[in-house]
Amino acid sequence: MATSEYATTLATLRAQRAAQPLSILSLAEPITTSQLPAHAQTPSRISDTLSTATEADSSLPLTPATLTADLSHYKDLFSKLRFSYLEQVTKEKYLRSIVGDPPLLVSHEDNLALEEKLAVMKANLKQMKEDVDTLVGEMEERARDVAHAYEGVSEGLQILEEVPTEIQDLRAEVEQLQEEIKARRGQEQGSSDPRMQMSLAATEQALMEQKERNAEIDRQIAELQKQLPGKVREVEKMDRELTELERRRNESTRLAVEGRRRREEGGRDEMEELGRWNRASESVMKGLLWVEG
């Protein structure tokens, strides 16, 4: 059901796209295919100017760069045509005014009136040009938006056209994976590991017990981590005590070696005398305090 609806939707989108093509493509077609008519009767200077229009290569692809180049070319072309036309019309009027019967004479007042009329027309033309430029800018902005939207729609339609093939490939891959899983399960059934023969309920129970053991281990690890700072301090304290004991041992060893050396040399043993004095002092103190030794 879903496949048929997808195909119907895709066919509807294709039909709508074919029924309503983008107008800008149709508008751009005459730019690349137009040719000047062969029966056009123009003066020599105008024909020379128009002959440059046939030099454009109509086989170029439609891109913003080519369209901009064509627009600049045609603007320059029509500017030259306008100049040639005004020149020819001015010459024609001048000749007619001279050879007419009676000749057409223009006074200074007529020139002033024409200049005033021309100034008004120039102001109106300038305003119209500004309006046209504004409209052209809005049209260009709108054309860019439409072009981006058209590209998005085209990409989306292409993706939609590729989706059915990708779905079929994924289904084939899923079926292949299912076959591999079935084959592996058949191999595992002959395995000597008893855990591979467990039922689903037994497997879930074993998994739960393993999770409980892991939780207990994690709890013990957390407890040991809490005790770790205290143990570290105890070890540091024992290291300090060990260092002090080693220092005392080295000092005692040094004194013992020094005393032995003095005894061997027949000298005076200060440590032994000090020990005798301490023992005598201890005996006197015990006698004074009536302490039994």
From TrEMBL:
Annotated Polar residues bias: 35-56
Compositional bias ranges of the Basic and acidic residues kind: 246-276
Domain Kinetochore protein Sos7 coiled-coil: 76-150
Any one Gene Ontology BP term: attachment of mitotic spindle microtubules to kinetochore
Gene3D superfamilies for the chain: 1.10.287.2610
Region (Disordered): 35-57, 246-278
SUPFAM superfamilies to which the protein is assigned, alphabetical: Bacterial hemolysins
Cited Pfam families: Sos7
GO CC annotation: kinetochore
Residues forming coiled coils: none
Stored InterPro entries: Sos7, Sos7_CC
Entries under PANTHER family matching the protein: KINETOCHORE PROTEIN SOS7 (PTHR37329:SF1)
Name of protein: Kinetochore protein Sos7 coiled-coil domain-containing protein
Organism: Cladophialophora chaetospira
